[in-house]
Each structure stands twice: as structure tokens, then as C-alpha cells.
Amino acid sequence: MLAFEAAAKHQSFTNAASELALSESAISRQITMLEEQLGLKLFHRIKKRVTLTRAGERYSKQVAQILDQIERDMLNIMAHGGQRDVLELAVLPSFCSQWMIPRLPSFYERYPDITINAHAHSVMFMFKDTNYDAAIHFGQPNWPGAEADFLFKEDVVMVGKPQILRQKQIKVAEDVLNHTLLHLSSRSEAWRNWFDENSLAEADAIQGSRFELFSLLISAACAGLGIALIPRYLISKELKEKNLEIVDHVTETTQNAYYLVYPDKNLIDNSSLLNFRNWLQEEVKTYQECK
Question: What kind and span of H or E run contains 10?
């Protein structure tokens, strides 16, 4: 596999041999043995040149992915086998960057021998199919095969750039009807729900730009591109620095919430997860008291 991957990458047995510190004839023998096992040709051999066949091109992509995964698995088990405990978390990017990471120094002060690896993940998955110990989930507490610890609900506010709000004389919810709306792609009904709750059913809740991440939506609002609905906890800095201003101070508390989810057996034999869970609950309590 290594010989084939190197030869496919370089389109050369000579360069593959140099990379793997083998002889060119050894690479050639390895490729020939692989072709015999597969029962098909992986390379066209024209004089001293080699090029991938169609089957070889397709197989080279699969082999490269397999070898990459093997390397990641090796590094992962090496990390877990060391003296430090490693906690693998699947996290929501905005929650992680804006809420969790700024609080992590206190975790490391208390647990210096635990390392947290955060992986961006926004959709549900089966824990048994991954190496994740836990995940941060937004929605309802119905993750298949997992326990869900409630963290907190969202307080969503309508915000815009202060200069734009003054220029357009936007002071209350009704004033945004003729202004550009900014949307988060994964929450396509946010503006429609907002208008319905404020008895503005005739409003055009579809117009305006869409953004994949809250970080992009926040940047767009700060740049004055339009009005956005954003969870208050994500923009505390922007509000404090007057880069954003709340319109009408109407707050919507969503029905969905943030949860820490994990297979129930993980708490039994994973002390790192238990410590992280306890720390997270303490941080949430402090956050709620300071709101």
C-alpha cells in the first residue's frame, strides 16, 4: 500500500523508491504483487515512464484516505497512551470559540493533566462509530444512545451596527421591515418566527444574505450589511464595544437549548469526562448568575 501510494503520488517508481528509502526494483515488485492480488493493472508502463490507469486513479484516492486515517488513528492512540488524559469533544464552532474556549484556562488550572481536543461538528452522529467522548449539542435532548445534560437556553436579540440603526431610524421591531435582513443558513425560519411573534405576518422574512456560521453573521452585522438575530452570549464583546446595538431590547428565548451529550457508560470509566462535566456545570451556573 505504501509503495503504491508513493508511486501514484509521484507517477514515478524512482521517486517513490527515494521517498521510502527502497530500491526501484523493490517498488516495482510491490506494485506487481498488488496488481496480481487485485487482478488488474494499476499503472501503464511505457518505456521508463509509468502513469496510472483509470482503476489505479480511483484506487489511489481510496488508499490515500485509508493511510491518512491510519496515521490519525496512530497519533490518537499515542496521545491517549501518554501520561496526559485526552478528551475528544465534538463541538459547535460558535459555542466553542465564543463561550467555551475563553473559559478553558480555569479548566486547565484545575486539571493540568487533561488535554481537550475540540472537533467542529454540528450534526448528530452515533458515538459508537466515532472516537468522541462527548459532544455539545443544540436542539432537544433526544440524541440517540446518549445522555443529555442541560446547559442553557438561548436569548436571541435583534442587532445592527449603531450608525446604521441611527441613520435608518431603526428603534423598534417594526422599523426593520424595510431594511436588509441577515440570516444564518441553518436557522432559515428565525426571521419568520420573529415576525410572527411580533404580529408582523406580512413582513418579507426571506430577503437578505445568508451565512453558514454565526461568526460570519456577526461580522456582517458589525460591517453594517443588515440586521441580524443573534444569541446574546455570542456578542457580549461586540455589544460592550458598541460595534453592535440591540434593537428594541426585545429578547426571544428559543425552545431549543445547549446540552452536553455522551454515552452513559462513558462516565463510569472516563474520569476526564466526569471532571469536564462537573467543571462545565459550574461554569454554566456562574454564567447564569452573571447574566
Answer: helix 2-10
